[in-house]
Amino acid sequence: MFKSLKKRYAPWWQLYVFLLIPVIWVIIFKYIPMAGIQLAFRKYDISGGIWNSPWVGFQNFQKFFRSYQFERVIKNTLRLSVYSIFAGFPFPIIFALLLNSVEHVRFKKIVQTITYMPHFISMVVLVSMIIQIFNPNHGLYGIIFKAITGTKPEDILASPGGFVHLYVWSGIWQGFGWGSIMYLAALTSINTELYEAAEIDGANRFQRLIHIDIPGILPTVTIMLILRTGSVMSIGFEKVFLMQNSLNLATSEVISTYEYKRGLASGGSSDFSLSTAIGLFNSTVNLIILVIVNKIANKLSETSLW
């Protein structure tokens, strides 16, 4: 058996050596820390450490479920996530379809470069740009609004409703170009003979898009949608936290920021066990949603992750 394995993998040993690096990284930083999940079922005591802290079962989960913040953070998280999916998910697809129909290669590359660039803007810089642009006193938004109406505009950054729209649409602007890469790659893999046959049959560009392009990328769209819905309870921490203030807290307090505040930002009242329980609850819900959506997609389209 050893000889057969050696014969099979020996020609590619250099590739497997390179593969060891990410595998070791995943084990060290992803799997070993999973031992800390038991904190969710313990009352953490710094003197006893993780292993010697008293076992409390599901008390931390009950504490979270009974908290007055529970309903608000769940509702805010789902609002931002579902809004982002419905408003933002179609944009990369539409952009990829439109860009794929452009015949001028140089123009296509320029557009791709420009639309990819926002993805590489750090979250701190992006939020700083949002704050500067939408400042009601001396931001671009405030200056234009005052020039047109003669009055000072409402502070969108301090508005609970304004926070939701700013968060979602700034994310769409930053990510739609980069997100289109997968769909452009899927479009390039479509057999060109299909286009030639469609042209011979008299199909125009729009008809080729409907009957060739869209069906060709549909499996990719399904997979990306499954992955996106599988993280419906996971809202990025950095952006929300940086845009958050005491005036928009009613809509900006999500699971990730609440988890951080209970675990690390509460000073002497930090509760590591409760924070771990919140994170484990969040991951479990995401996993359940991922399995359900994957099963539904498999039945409807025969395309799924597994």
Features:
single chain, 306 residues, mainly alpha, MetI-like fold, 17 helices
What does this structure look like?
With 306 residues, the chain is mostly helical. It contains 17 helices and no strands. It has a single domain, classed as MetI-like (MetI-like fold), CATH 1.10.3720.10. The protein has helices at residues 2-9, 13-31, 49-52, 59-66, 70-88, 90-100, 105-116, 123-133, 140-149, 160-179, 181-188, 192-200, 205-229, 237-243, 249-252, 255-263, 272-301. Helix 6 (90-100) runs parallel beside helix 10 (160-179). The two termini are 29 Å apart.
- What is the percentage of strand-forming residues? under 5%
Give the % helix.
Answer: 55-70%
Number of strands: 0
Can you count the helices? 17
Order of helices and strands: HHHHHHHHHHHHHHHHH
What is the correct CATH architecture? Orthogonal Bundle
- The shape, in one word, is globular
Radius of gyration: 25 Å
Q: Could you give me the name of the CATH homologous superfamily?
A: MetI-like
Question: Topology of this protein?
Answer:
Layout: H1 2-9, H2 13-31, H3 49-52, H4 59-66, H5 70-88, H6 90-100, H7 105-116, H8 123-133, H9 140-149, H10 160-179, H11 181-188, H12 192-200, H13 205-229, H14 237-243, H15 249-252, H16 255-263, H17 272-301
Précis, in short:
The protein is mainly alpha-helical. The chain contains 17 helices and no strands.
